[in-house]
Amino acid sequence: MTFPYVLRAELLKLRRSKVTLVSFIVFSFMVVIVGSFLWMMKNPAVAESIGLLGQKAKLAFGGQPLDWPSFLALVVEIGGMGGLLMCSVIVSFIFGREYAEGTAKNLLALPVPRCQFVLAKIVTATIWFGALTLWLIPVSLVTGLAVGLTGLTGAQLTAATAKLLGLAGMSLCCSAIVAWVAVETRGYFAPMGFSIGTLMVASVFGHTGWGPWVPWSIVGLYSGAAGPVTDIGWGSVAVIAATLIVGTGLVASHEVKADNSQ
């Protein structure tokens, strides 16, 4: 069976890439920024004395209580729309790098079923983005303690973790279309542009009745980033699942039919 070797090769590429480290730094930075706004709200006099803009921090925090539930809610929003964009970047990199670096033709020429390459890349993206999502938890704990938050309960942390993992799963399903754009256009830039476009779509439809039927808006609604936090129904679950199936099918079809001149 060749799949374990194909997956190992994909994971080795990931380990040796600097993009992996950068992704963790970016996610950490977003949480620290939220924590810095919270700190400025808790210490307005000190913030103003050292030249920080306390009013902007107040606007950014939206007047919410300065406690763990509010902070974790903002972290969940980061894992929602921020995670959707980061997941798209990850998938664009994993699927598009073979074309950008000119190695796609080498993969296509190997005596290995091409669907195994697609599956290995999907598994690699899942491992990468899953680890990135879980990384938000310790970073959030350290940041929250650093700014002086107290009273965190196990139930609050468990609920936030479960929601982050749920959002990660949705983002991965939505990014299947991004993977298809990457292989169809043979590079990074088109899927990146497509990903930015989906954020705009999520924002627009998230404030309409169509939000629960648009995959990217569903992520925004469930996280609270595209409007009031909304529990998704079975219809939205079906939309997310259909996005995964269609996107994966398009990628597999492209790779199976592609000639090795690509």
Note down, in words, how this protein is organized.
- The protein has 262 residues and is an all-alpha fold.
- It has one domain.
- Helices cover 79% and strands 0% of the residues.
- It starts with a helix and ends in a 5-residue tail after the last helix.
Secondary structural class = mainly alpha
- Mean of pLDDT: 83
Quick one: biggest sheet? none
The total tally of domains equals 1
Distance between the termini: 26 Å
Can you tell me the overall shape? globular
**Rounded Rg:** 20 Å
Helix content: over 70%
Tally of DSSP β-strands: 0
Query: Low-confidence parts lasting 5 or more residues at pLDDT below 50?
Result: none
The number of distinct helices, counting runs of at least 4 residues, comes to: 11
Order of helices and strands: HHHHHHHHHHH
Q: Per DSSP, what share of the residues sits in E-state strands of 2 or more residues?
A: under 5%
